[in-house]
């Protein structure tokens, strides 16, 4: 039920799995930031990478390069305000770990693909870096990275894969989940706890 956006965005997030060894780049060069994410990431991934290493790499990536608070608030939409501060913090922690575990199961198949940055476009207070991944069994996958300068370091606020926004797709999924549980925002916490317990 909650896997749709994960399937859509798995390729994009796969391309950044070297955060544990790659220092954060200064904000003035968005092309280099995304280029390093993609090029280095696809070089180290592959089916021979143990699951524990994938988990560790992706966990480090998500914490370092993604704007977790911004994404979490957007994903929950108006339901974010219905949570207590304690529930909000629990959600961000569960959301992060759920994403790490769900993606780690799908990362190996993208190792070795050809990645290239194709351009940059300023959009409001963000910069959109466009890129492509060549596949042997289909047309190139187009990936748009939305970056925002956070104190001199870029943070990823959204990723579009072939025109589909990860944030929007997950927000729709969470909104449906809340509605199916009597409009209670804390239902999201219960579902994430259950998903992570099963994954252990």
Please write out the topology.
Blueprint (H helix, E strand, L loop, with lengths): L3 H11 L15 H15 L6 H15 L2 H9 L8 H20 L9 E10 L2 E10 L2 E13 L2 E9 L2 E2 H14 L7 H13 L1
Helix pairs in contact: 1-6, 3-5, 4-6, 5-7
Briefly say what this structure is:
By secondary structure, this protein is of the alpha+beta class. Helix content is 48%, strand content 22%.
Structure characteristics:
5 strands; globular; single chain; 200 residues
The biggest beta sheet is recorded as:
5 strands, antiparallel
Q: Using the 3D structure, state the CATH architecture.
A: Roll
Low-confidence stretches: 18-26
Q: How many domains, as an integer?
A: 1
Number of helices: 7
Could you tell me the strand content as a percent range? 15-25%
Radius of gyration: 17 Å
Order of helices and strands: HHHHHEEEEEHH
Q: Kindly report the spatial arrangement of strands forming the biggest sheet.
A: 1-2-3-4-5
The CATH homologous superfamily is called Tgt2/MlaC
Description:
This protein is of the alpha+beta class. The chain has a single domain (4-199), classed as Tgt2/MlaC (Nuclear Transport Factor 2, Chain: A). It is built from seven helices and five strands, in the order αααααβββββαα. The chain has helices spanning 4-14, 30-44, 51-65, 68-76, 85-104, 166-179, 187-199, and strands at 114-123, 126-135, 138-150, 153-161, 164-165. It has a five-stranded antiparallel β-sheet with strand order 1-2-3-4-5. A hairpin with a 2-residue loop joins β3 and β4 (153-161). The chain is globular and about 45 Å long. The two termini are 19 Å apart. Mean pLDDT is 81; it is low at 18-26.
